[in-house]
Amino acid sequence: MVSLPELRDAQIDPLDAAATAYDTLANNFKKHADDLNTQVLKHVFDGRWVGNAAGAANTAMQTTSTRLDAAHTELSCVSGLLREASESFRLAQSKLQEALADAKTDGFTVADDGTVTWPPPSAAERHDPEYDTPQRGKAIADRISHAVGEAANADQKISKALDGLTQRAKTGAGLSLDNAAADQKSVTQLGTDLLNAGFPPEGAGATEVNSWWKGLTPDEQQRLIQAHPDLLGNRDGIPAAARNQANLLNLDHLTKEYENKPDPSDADKQKLEGFRAIRTKLDQAKTKEPPPVFLLAVSDEGQGRGCLSWGNPDTAKNVSAYVPGLGTKLSDVGGKDADRARNVWQAAHNADPTAETASMVWLGYDPPPGPLDGDPRTLEVMSGDRAQKGGANYDKFMGGLRATHEGAPAHLVALGHSYGSTTVGMAATQGGGTGADDIILVGSPGTGADRASQLHIDPKHVWVGDAQNDPVSHLPAKERVAADGTGAAIGAKLAGPLGAWTGGKVANELYDDFGDTNDLWFGKDPAAKDFGANRFAVADGAPLSFDSHSNYMEDPNMDTSKDPAKRDELESINNIGQIVAGKYDNVTKQDGR
Questions:
Q1: Could you tell me the domains of the chain?
Q2: pTM exceeds 0.85 for this model
């Protein structure tokens, strides 16, 4: 067992030194095996020695080579266990030190057995309804007990594993390649188990994760980032700077992994393209003026995950998280959608240059393929399943932004475009909503809600941008498509209602037959008066053109002197910037449909 004083006073550095010594010993055994194979065996075979003695010598040398390889593996297992011990004890010690420091700050006394005591309450405290010293003392005692228990668990399991390796070294059983391979597998699994035990559980909320992270020393935080970036980079509740550092390592690892796939699928190639695009965008950002760019997420889950933030969301006053929609690929996180997020940052900065702003693109779900991708799964846009799942992930991400923010709470804005607005809307209707102060929906085919008041936010803070000629924001209700012969014929092909995007005749029919209804594909039209949101002014856009669906977040600083029509398109991004900056009086509005 491990006691509180033992963990508190433990000197862990010698474990690292011992691990390094075993690494050196293991490498020497490996060198002996290599020398035997390349120097001794080579000369024996080249000498064409034959006969019974030659056969016996060959067998003996092969056996020795095998035993040296096994010894190398066994010694590597010892060094690995010692490093796992060091890592586990440092994590537990950091938690204990933080709990002891908090106890000292609160004036509590901690005994060597972990008991926490405090002075009896004064008369005023006894009558104070907010007096919570016992609860705080119990919480600190629980933290101390958990840290000591964690160290004891690691000590027991690592000691048992080391005893096993020692016994096999004494008997020679460890000199079998099969036994050595089994030991290596066992040690690897033990390391994973101990590491997971030291981390917050998988279902832990962002606040719990952030509290755990802040309880680690800076050295331990850096050690974990370098050793286990895959466990930190995409974890909500880890601060942006640490996530960025971890994800830069993850990005390099994923890129190399997918570059070296022997027979990559089309999905693999698409992910690799995405990883490379994100790297290119990060490299380009280094050569440009502020804001700095943070890589808040990257993984190969599903179709690929990624999140780039222009500015630090943990320190910014105004924070915007943009969700792209239909047809978005991972490469777009390093392409057009990264540019849109940068344009939002610029527009908000223009609206209030005195306030620090962070604007990000978040791809934490699998949007349905676009109608031009030639993918039959495009029909999945008819379902809200992807938006529902994405909305749950988005809620967690927004909770993480709240948990890691420093100082006064940020002005947090949820921004969704196209199917991304459906994802944001479904996120807002779940549980307590997104936690955002404002919700912006642009080019929306509906949110799954009938009223802005259903988005768990004051309706005056729901904002809708909808180009009059945007075909997506005119997608008719499923019921009407099913009842209409034209809609049914379209739905039988790849496009379904999305045929409006490529067929002028069909698009015209959609406008003629369904343009006046407030029922869209995913619920009521957010731009309708009855929905109850603010509709901000945007350009009408070209009739029957998909460009009308794509011009909501243009560069607000673009030169429009040679193309006055572009000037009208900037009204949308400028209004978005005013909302993100909290300058509501400067937003130009238009009537709902």
A1: 4-198 (1.20.1260), 240-483+517-586 (3.40.50.1820)
A2: no
